[in-house]
Write a structure and sequence with these properties.
Layout lengths: L24 E2 L2 H5 L7 E2 L12 E4 L4 E4 H11 L15 E4 L5 H5 L7 E4 L18 E4 L1
Antiparallel strand pairs: 1-2, 3-4, 3-5, 6-7
Length: about 140
């Protein structure tokens, strides 16, 4: 059993010097105290909540901004607007990915009822279509 922590991207051993501290600005302290939720963190520059937008991490400063802020402000000057630290180039920008599945993480859709759709195996007709022999649970 490998006892070392490995990078999920490269598979190499993870070292402390490879880690980047992230400074997340809190948009809703009450929501954070309750355990988190949509819009609990915000962009360090625009102060817009980060919900479904693409967020970027500026490596030298650890500041998290929205991609739209990068295109409009930071990309032109190549320095962090919060700390003033210079960016070397695109290698100093990390795209942050969202956690969880997109379906369950981004909306409040809930199945109200379901019904069983049976294939034609129970009667004398031949099976047609794309339904499996055992049936298909349909959500409404």
């Amino acid at each position: 059993v490998d006892t070392s922590t490995r990078c999920p991207v490269t598979g190499k051993k993870l070292k402390v010097k490879d880690l980047i501290s992230v400074k997340m600005d809190v948009a809703d302290q009450k929501l954070l105290d309750q355990g988190g939720g949509k819009g609990v963190f915000c962009c360090a520059v625009s102060k817009n909540p980060i919900v479904f937008q693409q967020a970027l991490l500026l490596k030298p400063s650890g500041v998290v901004i929205l991609e739209s802020v990068w295109k409009d402000i930071v990309g032109k000057e190549m320095k962090c607007p919060v700390t003033g630290k210079k960016l070397k180039g695109e290698e100093d920008i990390l795209k942050l990915t969202t956690g969880g599945s997109g379906f369950s993480a981004h909306n409040d859709v809930e199945a109200k009822s379901f019904s069983m759709i049976r294939s034609a195996t129970g009667d004398n007709r031949t099976q047609q279509g794309h339904l499996p022999r055992a049936g298909f649970a349909g959500l409404h």
